[in-house]
Write a structure and sequence with these properties.
It is built from eight helices and seven strands, in the order αββααβαββββαααα. It has about 180 residues and is an alpha/beta fold. The strands form two sheets. It has a five-stranded mixed β-sheet with strand order 5-4-3-7-6. Strands 1-2 form a two-stranded antiparallel ribbon.
Length: about 180
């Protein structure tokens, strides 16, 4: 069920009407949508704001999941997503997405406002495994700020045998926990 506080372009109002409401101070932009200016931004609202973009087949991962979960203040320019359904997707999803085809297991997903989002542990592991230095820096910051989630991420790595960049991710997460 869509959130009554998130206005998506084309659903109830046009993009022009929503932008005008922002100029008047009634709404503020949030992800791909708009929320009333006096509503406190939350995980539910962030997820609802990208519901149309992700649809029923994709899950938010990496920086997109970190933003939805409240670790980043601003959404990424291109959302990172992964296939969350058993069948392969054979079409270009959107230029606004960085799409990864491997299936993300349902045990690694949360459902927030009808949007699939990778769990905090899985998101932290994905960021720590990333070849991108900015993603690894975010993982370090996250592990320092939320040591319990870093512990869960290390446990997730220990439960999974063969995944790319596992050793480096584990080293990053353990070094932050012990420092």
């Amino acid at each position: 069920m869509p959130s009554p506080f998130v206005y998506l372009p084309g659903a109830r109002l046009t993009e022009a009407e929503l932008t005008a409401a922002c100029l008047d101070g009634h709404l503020v932009a949030l992800g791909d949508g708009y929320i009333p200016a006096d509503v406190v931004e939350s995980t539910m609202l962030r997820a609802a704001s990208v519901a149309n973009l992700l649809g029923a087949t994709l899950a938010a991962t990496h920086e997109s999941a970190a933003w939805i979960l409240g670790l980043l203040d601003e959404p990424p320019a291109r959302h990172r997503v992964q296939r969350a359904v058993g069948k392969r997707l054979h079409h270009v999803v959107s230029r606004r997405l960085v799409y990864r085809d491997p299936l993300i297991e349902s045990s690694d997903l949360l459902r927030i406002a009808d949007v699939r989002v990778s769990t905090p542990a899985r998101t932290l592991v994905d960021l720590a495994r990333s070849p991108d230095a900015t993603s690894r820096d975010l993982a370090r910051h996250w592990a320092r700020e939320r040591p319990g989630e870093a512990h869960e991420a290390v446990a997730w790595l220990d439960r999974h045998r063969s995944i790319p960049h596992k050793r480096g991710a584990r080293k990053l997460l353990v070094s932050v926990r012990t420092s």
